[in-house]
Amino acid sequence: MIRNPIPWPNGARCAVAITFDMDADSILHLEHADSHKRVSATSMLRYGPEVGIPRILDTYRKFDIKQTFFVPAWCIEQYPATIEAMLKDGHEIAHHGYIHENPVAQSREEQFYWLQRGIEIIEKYTGDRPRGWRAPLYNFSNDSADLLIEQGFLYDASLMGDDIPYLIQTDTGQLVELPSHWGLDDWPPYVHSLDLDYVMQVRGPAEAIQGFRSEFDCAWEYGGLWVSVWHPFASGRLSRWVEVEKLIRYMHEKGGVWFARMDEIAAHVAKVIEDGSYEPRVDSLPFYDRPVEAVWPGKQPDGVT
Ligand code: ZN
Fold first, then answer.
1. What is the pLDDT at residue 294?
2. CA 255 – ligand 1 centroid, Å
Protein backbone atom coordinates (compact mmCIF):
# COMPACT_ATOMS: atom_id res chain seq x y z
CA MET A 1 0.00 0.00 0.00
CA ILE A 2 2.95 2.29 0.70
CA ARG A 3 5.40 1.84 -2.15
CA ASN A 4 8.41 3.35 -0.50
CA PRO A 5 8.21 2.72 3.27
CA ILE A 6 10.84 4.42 5.36
CA PRO A 7 12.94 2.38 7.82
CA TRP A 8 11.94 3.49 11.32
CA PRO A 9 14.38 3.20 14.25
CA ASN A 10 14.72 -0.20 15.90
CA GLY A 11 12.45 -1.82 13.34
CA ALA A 12 9.37 0.10 14.55
CA ARG A 13 6.21 -0.48 12.51
CA CYS A 14 5.28 3.20 12.43
CA ALA A 15 6.07 6.59 13.94
CA VAL A 16 3.56 8.45 16.09
CA ALA A 17 3.69 12.16 16.88
CA ILE A 18 0.77 13.48 18.88
CA THR A 19 1.16 17.09 17.89
CA PHE A 20 -0.90 19.91 19.33
CA ASP A 21 -1.35 23.40 17.94
CA MET A 22 -1.76 25.51 21.05
CA ASP A 23 -3.58 28.37 19.38
CA ALA A 24 -5.47 29.53 22.49
CA ASP A 25 -7.27 32.81 21.68
CA SER A 26 -4.74 33.85 18.99
CA ILE A 27 -7.25 32.60 16.40
CA LEU A 28 -9.89 35.10 17.55
CA HIS A 29 -8.08 38.43 17.43
CA LEU A 30 -7.24 38.83 13.74
CA GLU A 31 -10.74 37.65 12.82
CA HIS A 32 -12.66 40.21 14.87
CA ALA A 33 -11.88 43.83 15.70
CA ASP A 34 -14.11 43.42 18.78
CA SER A 35 -12.47 40.19 19.92
CA HIS A 36 -11.77 41.69 23.36
CA LYS A 37 -15.53 41.77 23.96
CA ARG A 38 -16.08 38.12 23.02
CA VAL A 39 -15.71 36.69 26.50
CA SER A 40 -17.33 33.31 26.01
CA ALA A 41 -15.27 32.42 22.91
CA THR A 42 -12.14 33.62 24.70
CA SER A 43 -12.93 31.41 27.69
CA MET A 44 -13.43 28.41 25.38
CA LEU A 45 -10.02 29.01 23.80
CA ARG A 46 -8.21 29.78 27.07
CA TYR A 47 -9.36 26.35 28.27
CA GLY A 48 -6.40 25.11 26.15
CA PRO A 49 -3.48 26.60 28.08
CA GLU A 50 -5.28 26.74 31.44
CA VAL A 51 -6.91 23.29 31.70
CA GLY A 52 -6.11 21.23 28.59
CA ILE A 53 -2.32 21.46 28.60
CA PRO A 54 -1.80 20.48 32.27
CA ARG A 55 -4.02 17.43 31.66
CA ILE A 56 -2.17 16.53 28.45
CA LEU A 57 1.22 16.87 30.15
CA ASP A 58 0.06 14.56 32.97
CA THR A 59 -0.78 11.88 30.41
CA TYR A 60 2.52 12.26 28.57
CA ARG A 61 4.32 11.87 31.89
CA LYS A 62 2.31 8.76 32.67
CA PHE A 63 3.34 7.15 29.35
CA ASP A 64 6.84 8.66 29.43
CA ILE A 65 6.60 10.22 25.99
CA LYS A 66 7.97 13.51 24.65
CA GLN A 67 5.93 15.33 22.04
CA THR A 68 5.71 18.54 19.99
CA PHE A 69 3.61 21.63 20.54
CA PHE A 70 3.21 24.17 17.72
CA VAL A 71 2.63 27.50 19.43
CA PRO A 72 2.02 30.97 17.95
CA ALA A 73 4.67 33.25 19.46
CA TRP A 74 2.00 35.61 20.78
CA CYS A 75 0.66 32.70 22.87
CA ILE A 76 4.14 32.11 24.26
CA GLU A 77 4.15 35.70 25.51
CA GLN A 78 0.59 35.45 26.85
CA TYR A 79 0.90 32.08 28.58
CA PRO A 80 4.55 31.75 29.68
CA ALA A 81 3.80 29.40 32.59
CA THR A 82 2.18 26.92 30.20
CA ILE A 83 5.24 27.02 27.95
CA GLU A 84 7.52 26.56 30.95
CA ALA A 85 5.59 23.43 31.94
CA MET A 86 5.98 21.99 28.42
CA LEU A 87 9.71 22.68 28.42
CA LYS A 88 10.22 21.28 31.91
CA ASP A 89 8.92 17.92 30.67
CA GLY A 90 11.20 17.88 27.62
CA HIS A 91 8.67 18.63 24.90
CA GLU A 92 9.45 20.50 21.68
CA ILE A 93 8.09 23.99 21.03
CA ALA A 94 7.76 24.57 17.30
CA HIS A 95 6.84 27.66 15.27
CA HIS A 96 3.20 28.32 14.41
CA GLY A 97 3.21 31.95 13.29
CA TYR A 98 3.06 35.01 15.49
CA ILE A 99 -0.67 35.47 16.07
CA HIS A 100 -2.03 32.85 13.68
CA GLU A 101 -1.75 35.21 10.70
CA ASN A 102 -2.35 33.91 7.18
CA PRO A 103 0.91 33.72 5.15
CA VAL A 104 -0.96 33.11 1.88
CA ALA A 105 -2.52 36.59 2.20
CA GLN A 106 0.81 38.30 2.99
CA SER A 107 3.71 39.63 0.93
CA ARG A 108 7.03 37.83 1.18
CA GLU A 109 8.35 40.72 3.32
CA GLU A 110 5.46 40.43 5.78
CA GLN A 111 5.91 36.67 5.99
CA PHE A 112 9.61 37.13 6.67
CA TYR A 113 8.90 39.68 9.41
CA TRP A 114 6.45 37.48 11.33
CA LEU A 115 8.57 34.34 10.85
CA GLN A 116 11.59 36.18 12.18
CA ARG A 117 9.69 37.68 15.09
CA GLY A 118 8.38 34.23 16.07
CA ILE A 119 11.88 32.76 15.92
CA GLU A 120 13.19 35.48 18.26
CA ILE A 121 10.44 34.90 20.81
CA ILE A 122 10.88 31.10 20.74
CA GLU A 123 14.64 31.57 21.20
CA LYS A 124 14.06 33.93 24.11
CA TYR A 125 11.69 31.61 25.96
CA THR A 126 13.19 28.21 25.12
CA GLY A 127 16.87 28.98 24.57
CA ASP A 128 16.78 27.26 21.16
CA ARG A 129 15.92 28.20 17.62
CA PRO A 130 12.80 26.38 16.42
CA ARG A 131 13.49 23.46 14.09
CA GLY A 132 9.97 23.02 12.74
CA TRP A 133 7.01 25.05 11.52
CA ARG A 134 3.35 24.47 10.84
CA ALA A 135 1.54 27.17 8.88
CA PRO A 136 -1.42 28.69 10.72
CA LEU A 137 -4.50 26.94 9.33
CA TYR A 138 -2.27 25.00 6.88
CA ASN A 139 -1.78 28.29 4.98
CA PHE A 140 1.59 27.34 3.50
CA SER A 141 2.42 29.94 0.82
CA ASN A 142 4.61 29.87 -2.29
CA ASP A 143 7.27 31.67 -0.21
CA SER A 144 7.07 29.47 2.89
CA ALA A 145 9.54 26.76 1.88
CA ASP A 146 12.22 29.26 0.80
CA LEU A 147 11.84 31.32 3.98
CA LEU A 148 12.06 28.21 6.19
CA ILE A 149 15.15 26.94 4.34
CA GLU A 150 16.82 30.36 4.58
CA GLN A 151 16.15 30.44 8.32
CA GLY A 152 17.66 26.98 8.83
CA PHE A 153 14.48 25.05 9.64
CA LEU A 154 14.75 21.27 9.46
CA TYR A 155 11.12 20.42 8.80
CA ASP A 156 7.65 21.62 7.90
CA ALA A 157 4.40 20.06 9.12
CA SER A 158 1.77 21.90 7.05
CA LEU A 159 1.34 19.78 3.93
CA MET A 160 -0.69 16.69 3.09
CA GLY A 161 1.13 15.17 0.11
CA ASP A 162 1.97 11.68 1.38
CA ASP A 163 1.48 9.04 4.11
CA ILE A 164 5.15 9.16 5.04
CA PRO A 165 7.85 11.85 5.27
CA TYR A 166 9.08 13.31 2.00
CA LEU A 167 11.26 16.17 0.80
CA ILE A 168 10.24 19.60 -0.41
CA GLN A 169 12.63 20.96 -3.02
CA THR A 170 12.91 24.58 -4.12
CA ASP A 171 15.61 26.58 -5.88
CA THR A 172 16.85 27.55 -2.41
CA GLY A 173 17.28 24.04 -1.02
CA GLN A 174 15.43 21.21 0.71
CA LEU A 175 13.20 20.69 3.71
CA VAL A 176 11.81 17.54 5.34
CA GLU A 177 8.02 17.43 5.18
CA LEU A 178 6.20 15.53 7.95
CA PRO A 179 2.69 15.42 6.54
CA SER A 180 -0.69 14.98 8.13
CA HIS A 181 -4.25 15.59 6.86
CA TRP A 182 -7.74 16.69 7.88
CA GLY A 183 -8.65 13.14 8.92
CA LEU A 184 -6.20 13.52 11.81
CA ASP A 185 -7.32 17.05 12.71
CA ASP A 186 -9.74 17.50 15.60
CA TRP A 187 -11.57 20.55 14.17
CA PRO A 188 -14.05 18.64 11.99
CA PRO A 189 -15.33 16.33 14.77
CA TYR A 190 -15.12 18.73 17.72
CA VAL A 191 -15.12 22.44 16.92
CA HIS A 192 -18.40 24.28 16.77
CA SER A 193 -18.13 28.04 17.24
CA LEU A 194 -20.06 30.89 15.69
CA ASP A 195 -17.27 33.29 16.71
CA LEU A 196 -14.76 31.20 14.73
CA ASP A 197 -17.18 30.90 11.81
CA TYR A 198 -16.78 27.15 11.95
CA VAL A 199 -19.97 25.26 12.64
CA MET A 200 -19.81 21.48 12.58
CA GLN A 201 -21.94 18.78 14.10
CA VAL A 202 -20.05 17.86 17.26
CA ARG A 203 -19.19 14.15 17.33
CA GLY A 204 -19.12 12.07 20.48
CA PRO A 205 -15.56 11.27 21.64
CA ALA A 206 -15.88 7.52 21.07
CA GLU A 207 -16.98 8.13 17.48
CA ALA A 208 -14.30 10.74 16.77
CA ILE A 209 -11.49 8.65 18.22
CA GLN A 210 -12.48 5.74 15.98
CA GLY A 211 -11.33 7.71 12.94
CA PHE A 212 -7.99 8.54 14.56
CA ARG A 213 -7.58 4.88 15.62
CA SER A 214 -8.23 3.64 12.06
CA GLU A 215 -5.55 6.02 10.81
CA PHE A 216 -3.15 4.56 13.38
CA ASP A 217 -3.98 0.93 12.55
CA CYS A 218 -3.17 1.56 8.88
CA ALA A 219 0.03 3.45 9.68
CA TRP A 220 1.06 0.48 11.86
CA GLU A 221 0.14 -2.09 9.21
CA TYR A 222 1.90 -0.40 6.32
CA GLY A 223 4.77 1.51 7.91
CA GLY A 224 3.30 5.01 7.90
CA LEU A 225 3.54 8.18 9.90
CA TRP A 226 0.72 9.20 12.26
CA VAL A 227 0.73 12.91 13.06
CA SER A 228 -2.30 14.28 14.84
CA VAL A 229 -3.17 17.96 14.44
CA TRP A 230 -5.04 18.51 17.65
CA HIS A 231 -5.89 21.55 19.76
CA PRO A 232 -5.84 21.64 23.57
CA PHE A 233 -9.14 23.58 23.75
CA ALA A 234 -10.82 20.85 21.68
CA SER A 235 -9.17 17.47 22.34
CA GLY A 236 -8.08 18.47 25.86
CA ARG A 237 -11.74 18.51 27.01
CA LEU A 238 -12.39 15.88 29.69
CA SER A 239 -14.40 13.19 27.86
CA ARG A 240 -12.33 13.56 24.70
CA TRP A 241 -9.03 13.29 26.51
CA VAL A 242 -10.20 10.16 28.32
CA GLU A 243 -10.60 8.61 24.86
CA VAL A 244 -7.16 9.83 23.80
CA GLU A 245 -5.62 8.18 26.87
CA LYS A 246 -7.28 4.93 25.85
CA LEU A 247 -5.88 5.34 22.33
CA ILE A 248 -2.33 5.91 23.60
CA ARG A 249 -2.66 2.81 25.80
CA TYR A 250 -3.89 0.85 22.76
CA MET A 251 -0.87 2.03 20.74
CA HIS A 252 1.48 1.03 23.56
CA GLU A 253 -0.04 -2.41 23.91
CA LYS A 254 0.06 -3.03 20.17
CA GLY A 255 3.83 -2.45 20.30
CA GLY A 256 6.37 -1.53 17.64
CA VAL A 257 5.42 2.16 17.80
CA TRP A 258 8.02 4.91 17.79
CA PHE A 259 6.58 7.78 19.82
CA ALA A 260 8.74 10.79 19.07
CA ARG A 261 8.97 14.54 18.83
CA MET A 262 8.70 15.94 15.35
CA ASP A 263 12.30 17.21 15.39
CA GLU A 264 13.48 13.68 16.24
CA ILE A 265 11.47 12.21 13.36
CA ALA A 266 12.79 14.85 10.94
CA ALA A 267 16.36 14.24 12.11
CA HIS A 268 15.90 10.50 11.55
CA VAL A 269 14.57 11.13 8.04
CA ALA A 270 17.53 13.40 7.25
CA LYS A 271 19.93 10.77 8.59
CA VAL A 272 18.63 7.81 6.54
CA ILE A 273 18.65 9.98 3.41
CA GLU A 274 22.20 11.12 4.12
CA ASP A 275 23.58 7.63 4.80
CA GLY A 276 21.95 6.36 1.61
CA SER A 277 19.66 3.82 3.29
CA TYR A 278 16.52 5.61 2.10
CA GLU A 279 15.52 7.48 -1.02
CA PRO A 280 12.55 9.77 -0.35
CA ARG A 281 9.90 11.06 -2.68
CA VAL A 282 10.52 14.70 -3.59
CA ASP A 283 7.96 17.41 -4.31
CA SER A 284 9.28 20.48 -6.13
CA LEU A 285 7.65 23.75 -5.11
CA PRO A 286 5.93 25.93 -6.05
CA PHE A 287 3.40 23.72 -7.81
CA TYR A 288 2.22 26.79 -9.77
CA ASP A 289 3.76 30.24 -9.99
CA ARG A 290 0.76 31.91 -11.64
CA PRO A 291 -3.01 31.42 -11.59
CA VAL A 292 -4.22 28.38 -13.48
CA GLU A 293 -6.71 29.42 -16.13
CA ALA A 294 -8.78 27.51 -18.61
CA VAL A 295 -9.70 29.95 -21.34
CA TRP A 296 -12.21 29.12 -24.05
CA PRO A 297 -10.55 29.85 -27.45
CA GLY A 298 -13.60 31.84 -28.58
CA LYS A 299 -13.41 34.20 -25.59
CA GLN A 300 -13.61 37.81 -26.73
CA PRO A 301 -10.97 40.22 -25.42
CA ASP A 302 -12.13 42.14 -22.36
CA GLY A 303 -14.44 44.99 -23.27
CA VAL A 304 -15.67 43.39 -26.52
CA THR A 305 -19.25 42.13 -26.51
ZN1 ZN B 1 -3.30 26.81 14.63
1. 86
2. 31
